[in-house]
């Protein structure tokens, strides 16, 4: 698709007398400003001119600071991290290598999961509609094969299939296009018939019993466990906000802290095998992001500890042992402002991602860190320029 460039016509020239008057006013204003302006503050040693302050009236906007550096990663992990961008970005945490694979269509990429021999990756294309189904690719050995179009995708616990959800787009009215749900192989072959969902219902994850969906219910969500063929089974949460799903567990927040930060909400975990519910913590602010280990035994959560004012909130990370309710990361040194979490396939390593944006140039950088039990602080992994969102997926070599 090519962009059409339209050249604006030159405006009519103003009368000579008007232009001269405006010029005189501008010259007088400039002279007055120069006479009253305070001297510029000297630049610190080694500072570049663009980073130096130029006085109260002409100060430049400083770039956003990088996060505090953690101890470097020296132990081998064998991990590969896929990050978002305009290409598929792969980071070898041990070697520090960053490789980028272009995809067939332009757009923002979002990694979904590691699959045998490659990765599942979304390409988010520009769309003006209320709902858009994006292209989903299986990328293997530098070759991208489109395996579907959907709004969301989750890998099935069997590792050989995936669940997709999207919209039919039969009408311009959003409510006239109910969402659908289906299961496919990793090469895009359909395994189940397409199941029609309720308006605004969405896929939030997949357990070993089948896909899990949620639909708005007043101030929170009603969460439903579905059958392996996508058919509706039973409602497992009547009034909560789902935050993470694993093959064996589902975590959600009660709605106490979603509307008002001063409220208190319960972070609960449902064991889908036994039906037992465990309240692992009570939080006073919404969860930014959360991730289960594959076994569901541990839950990593990024949230904000409230201060006296909204701007005084302190970012925090907790790693809960679901059985004991203990925070394994209490008092440890973690990155601030964590925007994405992901566990390694063997449940040993937790990868944390933080994205910073330069407020002057609007360029972004993604900082990675790794933690495992027994470390007093997370280890700093490679950081790199990132032009995508804070989405990561973790796999092994």
Number of strands: 26
Shape: globular
Bin the strand percentage. Answer: 35-45%
Topology as H/E string? Answer: HEEEEEEEEEEEEEEEEEEEEEEEEEE
Please sum up the structure shown.
5% of the residues lie in helices and 43% in strands. The chain has 1 helix and 26 strands. The two termini are 37 Å apart.
Quick tags:
397 residues, 7-stranded antiparallel sheet, mainly beta, 1 helix, 4-stranded antiparallel sheet, disordered N terminus, globular
What features would you describe in this structure?
By secondary structure, this protein is mainly β. The chain contains one helix and 26 strands. It has one helix at residues 16-36; strands at 79-83, 88-92, 98-101, 108-115, 118-124, 134-140, 143-150, 152-155, 161-167, 179-185, 195-196, 202-207, 210-217, 220-226, 232-245, 249-253, 265-271, 277-283, 287-292, 298-305, 314-321, 340-343, 350-357, 364-371, 379-385, 392-396. The strands form six sheets. A seven-stranded antiparallel β-sheet has the order 12-13-14-15-16-17-18, with no helix packed on it. The chain has a four-stranded antiparallel β-sheet with strand order 3-2-1-26, with no helix packed on it. Strands 4-5-6-7 form a four-stranded antiparallel β-sheet, with no helix packed on it. The relative contact order is 0.12.
Write the layout of secondary structure elements.
Elements: H1 16-36, E1 79-83, E2 88-92, E3 98-101, E4 108-115, E5 118-124, E6 134-140, E7 143-150, E8 152-155, E9 161-167, E10 179-185, E11 195-196, E12 202-207, E13 210-217, E14 220-226, E15 232-245, E16 249-253, E17 265-271, E18 277-283, E19 287-292, E20 298-305, E21 314-321, E22 340-343, E23 350-357, E24 364-371, E25 379-385, E26 392-396
Antiparallel strand pairs: 1-2, 1-26, 2-3, 4-5, 5-6, 6-7, 8-9, 9-10, 10-11, 12-13, 13-14, 14-15, 15-16, 16-17, 17-18, 19-20, 20-21, 22-23, 23-24, 24-25
